[in-house]
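ugh ok fine here u go
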Amino acid sequence: MSQPLIFTEHAATKVWELMKEDGNLNLKLRVYVTGGGCSGFQYGFTFSEESQPDDIIISRLIKITDSQHEGDDEGDDEGDASGTTTVQLLVDSLSVQYLTGAEIDYKEDIEGEQFIIRNPNAKTTCGCGSSFTVE
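structure:
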């Protein structure tokens, strides 16, 4: 079964880094759509420990580098012997209709760092990048 969204390796790796920084390896990135913003709908991101019964769960296997293991001797579950771990993205059942086919990525440039969504369903987007309209 194909995934309804694309969760890039770069975004998943950033989620892993934030999980490690927070000291909570149970966190999952939740992406959602709400009404509002300058174009009618807006994207949101938050971290969640638990999935809800109606959530779509998208898992991404990533490689863990040695630098991502440094300073951690707590013996927690952080991947397997092959140096990989799975990071999860959650999308609620209402938001997925607006996000099907979208790519969740992480951008680092001169303007800063942020999670971004490239959404083929967005008819127009606002300059802020987090507000959109659909056809």
